[in-house]
Design goal:
mainly alpha, 0% strand, elongated
């Protein structure tokens, strides 16, 4: 089956039926030169056809197409394939090889996938090289997906750069709560307002984790000018 025949078959179909045809075709042609040609034809057409090629490659376990597609500038397709690879622990070598010269948008797509899929092993492996090459802000973008010990060690250095403290507190509430207490103690009366303002977005998650500790912090190290918003 070539692209023209496939498109003629799926064009009149509703989305669920279209997905079934794509899946059935991928399974039927898995491992064949015919599938390789079909995927290449679809991939050459931006938009839906390129996305269908990625979907069919995943279903057919076509690693050649997946490895090539991970690095594409089409971020929708790259992200789709990254999610598949992160969930199944596949092709991390391709990602690490592409990372040093990848554009910012591609890198942020990777970091978002790592966080969303909870790819802890990937986060642990990525963070040192990302920090060395791209700095603290990009390293902080993968921190939430790391192990608790790593977050404990690096949060004092990276807390200023964490893009979403609420997300970090959702995954590592005990670590963030301990860190907040340390920051408040170090800040003294003059600096506590700034600390509470910075960590305000994380408070709801911290209260869910340990209401008593948060109440204790507010009682003994609370902001002099009122509760954080």
């Amino acid at each position: 089956m070539d692209m023209r025949a496939l498109l003629a078959r799926i064009d009149p179909l509703a989305a669920p039926a279209r997905r079934r045809v794509l899946a059935d075709t991928a399974r039927a042609l898995a491992g064949s030169p015919e599938l390789t040609t079909l995927l290449a034809e679809l991939d050459a057409v931006p938009g839906l056809p390129r996305g269908w090629a990625a979907t069919m490659a995943v279903i057919a376990a076509d690693d050649t197409h997946i490895r090539r597609g991970i690095g594409t500038a089409d971020l929708r397709v790259a992200g789709q394939l990254m999610v598949h690879c992160a969930r199944h622990g596949l092709h991390f070598d391709v990602l690490t090889a592409a990372l040093p010269t990848a554009p910012l948008a591609w890198r942020h797509t990777l970091y978002r996938v790592v966080r969303a899929t909870g790819a802890t092993a990937w986060a642990e492996a990525l963070l040192p090289s990302v920090r060395a090459r791209f700095g603290d802000h990009e390293a902080a973008a993968v921190l939430a997906a790391c192990e608790a010990d790593t977050v404990t060690a690096l949060l004092p250095e990276l807390d200023f750069a964490v893009p979403n403290l609420a997300a970090l507190a959702r995954r590592h509430p005990a670590v963030v709560l301990t860190h907040l207490r340390r920051r408040l103690t170090e800040a003294g009366d003059a600096g506590r307002n700034a600390v509470w303002t910075r960590f305000g977005p994380a408070l709801a998650r911290l209260v869910e984790h340990d209401t008593g500790q948060v109440v204790d912090l507010l009682a003994h190290l609370g902001p002099p000018t009122g509760l954080p918003a």
